[in-house]
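Exercise 3.2. Students should predict the tertiary structure of the chain below and write it as structure tokens, then compare their answer with the key that follows.

Predict this chain's 3D structure.
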Amino acid sequence: MSARAIVVRQPLPRAGRQVWVDGKPAGRVRSLGELTELLHREGWQDLDEVDVAESPVIEWHGGGPEVWTPWSASPWPASATGVGEATP
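Answer key:
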């Protein structure tokens, strides 16, 4: 029996993240809860949201389980962009 695989693609504007299960597109999701529900429908009933977020079986592209929009995946720290800095 071959190992099963889950790939969560990078987030897209207004489209969420595309999910592939065992090499086939399974759908798009916009949250960890939606991903967990999708995986239940795909036969992964034993997983809860914590399992999904921490599973080594899931390959995350464009950010981990905390990233659901392209804007939350900024490679720049807040201090580099000036966000949150006080102006004199």
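Discussion points: DSSP finds three helices and four strands in the chain. Residues 80-85 have pLDDT under 50 and may be disordered.
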